[in-house]
Fold this protein.
Amino acid sequence: MKPDVKSQTALSQTANDRVNDHPKEKAVRAILIFLATCLAFLLLQCYSYAHWQEKEVLSYATYMAFLFSPLLGCVLARLITREGFRDGILWPRFLGNGKAYLLALLIPIIAGFLGSILSALFLKEGLTVKLEGGIRAWFLTLLLCFVQLYYVAFITAGEELGWRALLYDKLEILFGTNVAVILGGIAWGIWHFPALYYAGLNFGKDYPGFPFVGILLMCVATVFIGAPLWLVRKMSGSVIPACVFHGVIDSVYVGILPLFLAESATSQSKFQIGIYGFVLPCVIVGIPFWIYLNRLSQNVKSTSGAAFAKSE
């Protein structure tokens, strides 16, 4: 079957236009604006955890502002550099992008079940299906996990409209795909510092090397899971599949994982569950899609180069 010449030409023109519209100088400015915004809210959130926990309204408002700080950083960077949102990244683009949306749903679910299996193996506990209240109650619990996906996807949009809608994109312009995934993942992981340090996110607080080991593990997870997130963003040309993906990740880890692990396993060290149920699945699932992401990027570069040579 011969490749669609028109489609390849259109893709090449899009890639060329993208480079011309976003020179490296503008990319650097956008990154600095974005990171400065995120850092400012990160420090504010740390202060809130340390001093405003008794002030519930103020603490909650600060927390929500922090969650949406990547979105604010993206908006500020795009406005100040005059890039705007001409790329249509906010449009869902359902038509023709079914594969991206399917991956956005399936990859996190696969990671969730893999986390249950790995946790059971390493903790030497059997898998179970908890049926307290009967099978009807179990299905209602499972359904609730998916219903909350819509809420979680809305919250995680505050992150995805920053990380995947701006930072990864600009880093790729400067350094290429692999470095963008690594540096973007590290920045994304460090951004979780307030929750890791003050709230014991994913790993608790009772482990050797707290909080530095937890931060390192979080960065490992965000680097590898960031690859398929960036993949569905690039495949679709929209940030919406990444929002869905991120929402499913959080829903699976918080809601589904405990349903399939014995109580004796979930009551053990939160640090161990964080490694076996979260970090390892992110790495295992992330590797093949990182490879696929590289192939996709190479195909776009080859098509872009061929179109440029032909125009010359």
User: Anything to note?
Assistant: The CA atoms of residues 228 and 289 lie 5 Å apart. The radius of gyration is 21 Å. Residues 1-20, 304-312 have pLDDT under 50 and may be disordered. The longest helix spans residues 134-175.
